[in-house]
Amino acid sequence: MTEPDSPRPDFARQALPGERRVLEAAERSLIGHKRGLRGVWPFLGPAFIAAVAYVDPGNFATNIAAGSKYGYLLLWVILASNLMAMLIQSMSAKLGIATGQNLAEVSRERFPKPVRYGLWIQAEFIAMATDLAEFIGASLALNLLFDIPLFAAACITAVVSFAILELQNRGFRHLEAAIAGMVGLIVLGFAFQVFLADPDATDVLHGLVTPQFSGTDSVLLAVGIIGATVMPHVIYLHSALTQQRVVGADELTRRKIFRFELIDVIIAMSIAGIINMCMLVTAAAAFHAQGITNVADIDQAFYKLGEVLGHRADIVFGIALLASGISSSSVGTLAGQVVMQGYLRRSIPLFLRRAITMAPAFLLIGFQVNPSKALVISQVVLSFGIPFALIPLLMFCRDQTLMGSLVNRRLTTATAVVVIAIIVSLNVYLLYSTFFG
């Protein structure tokens, strides 16, 4: 079951034939034989896998609640959140490129044993909480779309998730293509709903560029949006996706690789940001503008969209939710494997890992816990883990001896300090409000 001498993630193994073609194309890009879109193409993929975490079922719940209650008021919060995500994910990708190691592996080497084991234990809990939200989201989508009982829907979700993970054995391009395809489904789904909702363009623009609040409840919702911006597990995962994908033999090559990966991050995170904005805009135009201001649950949003927009908007919403839940759940399992391999130099079969992380979701569904409440619980647990991923990432990326020429510039470090301080503070506030507010 264990592999004591195999600290690398499963996707850092010997390249398969299809992967070798991608790597050969990447080499031609690095030496300047391929430019423009053809030059960037071999490097696209890792950030799209990471971006799935930013459009998971937890984001559905938060954005719809914000749009229905406050209209376009908090659109600027999504924009700010997305810019923060770009910075953090670019740092994670850079760590993997510069060191050939992921965040968990570097933490194992740099921190003493008690700290290392403490980080590993909390990261495992975070992985389970992440999978809880995403697995329940997919099961809820099947329940809403086909009227399948939640427990049976959970079983179907498990089978589909296993199928997605199996693609990894056929090469990283197959997995990246599957995840990108599901992100595409989410994009199309919300583009269709925005078209049906017909929002006021002036109001959308005003909400996007005008920072404002409307009472303490709007502040709390904004905290929820920003708090869900950074998912701890995907910081670990992104560094693993870039650590051995295209390896630079020298400092100059590694800088070139990072420039290409930065384009990947900008494109993928921009798409994720647009999806989140479309969620809020749809809720604002379909619900808030019609005087419906209390849509807080995903299942409630499903039925209301069908009533208000017609044209099968509820079905399209359900398909987008299903794509989000299945893809983000698979990504969460990969992240859990990275954490275990990195901190312990141990791994278990990916399918066993998947079964273990699914167990809490099955328990909650079996006890008939409200799915939307389960999503809220998972987001609270995730808030605990954010500082333990962000702070080590910043420490490592500003270390010249570790990062070489890819070390953070002073402005990058200063900006990251501000961003991380905001995110951590808001998550502390979210936790306080949840338990004592």
Describe the structure.
By secondary structure, the protein is an all-alpha fold. The protein has a single domain (10-436), classed as Amino acid/polyamine transporter I (Up-down Bundle), CATH 1.20.1740.10. The protein has 19 helices and no strands. It has helices at residues 17-30, 36-40, 46-51, 57-70, 75-99, 103-110, 113-146, 150-166, 172-197, 201-209, 216-227, 232-243, 251-286, 298-309, 313-344, 350-366, 371-397, 400-403, 410-436. The protein is globular. The protein starts with 16 loop residues before the first helix and ends with a helix.
Give the oligomeric state: single chain
By CATH, the superfamily comes out as Amino acid/polyamine transporter I
Q: Tell me what portion of residues adopts beta-strand conformation.
A: under 5%
CATH class: Mainly Alpha
Question: Total domains, how many?
Answer: 1
What is the percent of helical residues? over 70%
Major sheet size, sense and barrel closure: none
Strand element count? 0
The gross shape turns out to be: globular
Termini, distance in Å? 45 Å
Tell me the number of helical segments per DSSP (H or I, 4 or more residues long). Answer: 19
What's the CATH architecture name? Up-down Bundle
Q: Find the structural class using helix and strand composition.
A: mainly alpha
